[in-house]
Amino acid sequence: MNGTTQFLQLFNPYPGNTFLEVSSGVCEISFALQSLLNEKESKLNLIIYGQEDETLKEQFPNSKIQYIEDIKKPFRVSPRSVDIIVLKNIFNQHQKNEALLKISYTALANAADIIIIEKKGTIDKTAMYELLENNEFRAANFIDIFPNYDLVMAKKMHMWGNGL
Questions:
Q1: Does residue 13 belong to any structural domain of this protein?
Q2: Could you tell me the residue range of the domain that residue 101 belongs to?
Q3: What one-character-per-residue DSSP string does the chain give?
Q4: Which of 11, 67, 100, 126 is the most buried (most CB within 10 A)?
Q5: Has this prediction a pTM greater than 0.70?
Q6: Total domain count for the chain?
Q7: Residue 99 lies in a domain
């Protein structure tokens, strides 16, 4: 079983669910996730750090796409509007990664998940567990499914810590 297939097994979408990918650009993972979510009548929204790409509107016709040119700026999303957030290839680049976690926490529905994907070997596991814990994400796990990427998944728990 390849990494993308295993990655999709982390999702259990229901009709009307909304998922968010915040990344430096789309890849095969993005297209596979979009395909799964379309089958289940769920939605994938995108926030892209980088230049605007008009072809993405055609490739992701059911998605809201937001572009942010400056990696130093945080993204914006409505509170409790997302069932899973995937931060892909931006966490280590962003100067305020704790701010990314706070925004993600607020954006996630109760008992929702955050997934962080970064190049293999660039995440300090101990520091990541501590950072997630300090920002009220629980049950953090490193999942080894991609040969070139590390994947960390954690859960926002309702009424733990921030209680949002």
A1: yes
A2: 3-156
A3: --HHHHHHTT----TT-EEEEEESS--HHHHHHHHHHHHTT-EEEEEEESS--THHHHHSTTS-EEEES-TTSPP---TT-EEEEEEES-TTT-TTHHHHHHHHHHHEEEEEEEEEEEETT-S-HHHHHHHHHHTTEEEEEEE---SSEEEEEEEE-TTSTT--
A4: 100
A5: yes
A6: 1
A7: yes
